Amino acid sequence: MDALSVTASIITVVQLAKSVTVLCFDAASKLKSVRKDIHHIVEEIISLRTVLEGLNRLVSNDSNPLSANRANFETVASAIAPLARCRIELQGIESELGKLIKSKSGPTSWIFKEKDIMARLDRISAVKHTLQLALVVDQTSAILETRVQSMSLKSSIDETNAESKRRAIIEWLSPSFHSNKLNDTQKIRTPTTGNWFLHSDLFKDWRQSPGSIMRLTGIPGSGKTVLCSSIIEELTEWRAERKDIIICHYFFDFAAQESQTVGAFVRSLLALIVVQGLVIPGAISNMYQRHHDGFQPPNDHNLLKMLHSLLKEVSETYVVVDALDECKELTHLLEAFDEIGAWHLPNVHILATCREDREIEETFTGLHSTHVSLDEAVLEDVHLYVNAALKKDRRLKRWPTKVQADISAALMRQAGCMFRLAKCQVDIIKTCFTLSELQKAMSSLPNTLDETYARILNNIEPALANDAFRILS
């Protein structure tokens, strides 16, 4: 088995996933009564694609070839059978959807096909979780392998043993690290994105005030996630000056089902604290031993108890959480925030983003949090993003200065303070090759995200499939 054959298997499954998604869009447009079921299929397929992309990055990592990394080799080897199962199940769904679209009986045909399609989808979900676990273990191993290698030059046997225990504890927590989400978001921001907030007294007060809690709200597409990435980068640079602070971040995401639980959230916080700490916190070590040296998984109640004990031991800790409203256990999550707030820890600073939501608002009001609305404030960030795209993207910077000014004006007029809408509209403008095409596109730019998505999906072509998937994600 070699990396090339694994890559070929991944590409085959990804292409099938694209085909199934396109069929889903077709079926949803023709069979409106089953759109909810079709939407569930699309969500699961997009989630699978996210995992496959992670596996593909692992295989394609030139700086860490499979032949030199046994952890990577074992992870990839364990993925062969699940990939084959995914291919079989996706082919089955593709076949059934094709028949459904061609059928004249419409929704009636769905009644007879639904059970088989959903059963296949369940099997795909099980396979996806298997692949996800393999990736999490590999990612954790990679992080800790680097630490172990650097320590081996100067560490004693006792220090090496302690690091081995740290490795075991983090693997026990099985965290959902969100470096991919963070990296993807940082690609679309400019160096000055979010400066209006990062240079404000609001941010300074949140960073310095004991036990500070802040809630940032905005409509969908207003740039909450992009601002989160700017905040995390600013805190990370600050940490380079102050080695004693700890930075934790978490992205709830509709497209990543496994990230939408309270357990995954708390596990990631704990793991990030352990990774950044110089020693294994006593609370973590004791809890690990009480669970038979990691043989038993911790429940949510014990995770919160562990977090409480841990936060009392560590120094200044900054927790940045994006998209609270995308947590499928929202009520449980807000109960957890209530509990964290009741600890009254002066060294813990929490910043969370979300859409306007009454339940979230009531909880954070009770926590005496500061509230900031982003809907108008991000207008300058949108303008910076549009201008940066016009200067750097090879498909846009070729236009004359006057035309670029017209593009900027049209995009700002339509997108307003919606960061995601501006990005989608930039993607539309990129496809124009002639001035007449460009003028036509600018004169008919969609006004909302829904209209933008509909236009992209209605005009989807194989060459643009990746863009469509990226937008939906």
What does this structure look like?
The chain has 473 residues and is mostly helical. It folds into 3 domains: 152 residues, no CATH class; 200 residues, P-loop containing nucleotide triphosphate hydrolases (Rossmann fold, 3-Layer(aba) Sandwich), CATH 3.40.50.300; 93 residues, no CATH class. Helix content is 67%, strand content 6%. It contains 20 helices and 5 strands. A 5-stranded parallel sheet has the order 2-3-4-1-5, with helices on both faces. α13 links the parallel β3 and β4. It is globular, with a radius of gyration of 24 Å. It starts with a helix and ends with a helix. About 2% of the residues have low confidence.
Chart the SSEs and their pairings.
Blueprint: H1 3-30, H2 35-59, H3 70-102, H4 107-152, H5 157-173, H6 179-186, H7 195-198, H8 201-208, E1 213-217, H9 224-241, E2 246-251, H10 262-276, H11 282-290, H12 300-313, E3 317-322, H13 330-342, E4 348-354, H14 358-366, E5 370-373, H15 379-392, H16 401-415, H17 419-430, H18 435-443, H19 449-458, H20 465-472
Parallel strand pairs: 1-4, 1-5, 2-3, 3-4
Helix pairs in contact: 1-2, 1-3, 2-4, 3-4, 4-5, 5-10, 6-9, 10-12, 11-12, 13-14, 15-16, 15-17, 16-17, 17-19
Distance between the termini: 32 Å
The arrangement of helices and strands along the chain is: HHHHHHHHEHEHHHEHEHEHHHHHH
Please state the CA-atom Rg, rounded to the nearest Å. Answer: 24 Å
**Number of H- or I-type helical stretches:** 20
Poorly predicted tracts of residues: 62-71
Q: Mean of residue pLDDT? A: 78
CATH level 1 class label of the largest domain: Alpha Beta
C-alpha geometry: globular
Number of β-strand runs: 5
Kindly estimate the percentage of residues that lie in beta strands according to DSSP: 5-15%
CATH superfamily of the largest domain: P-loop containing nucleotide triphosphate hydrolases
Helix and strand content put the structural class at: mainly alpha
Largest sheet properties:
5 strands, parallel
Summarize the amount of helix as a percent range. Answer: 55-70%
Strand order of the largest sheet: 2-3-4-1-5
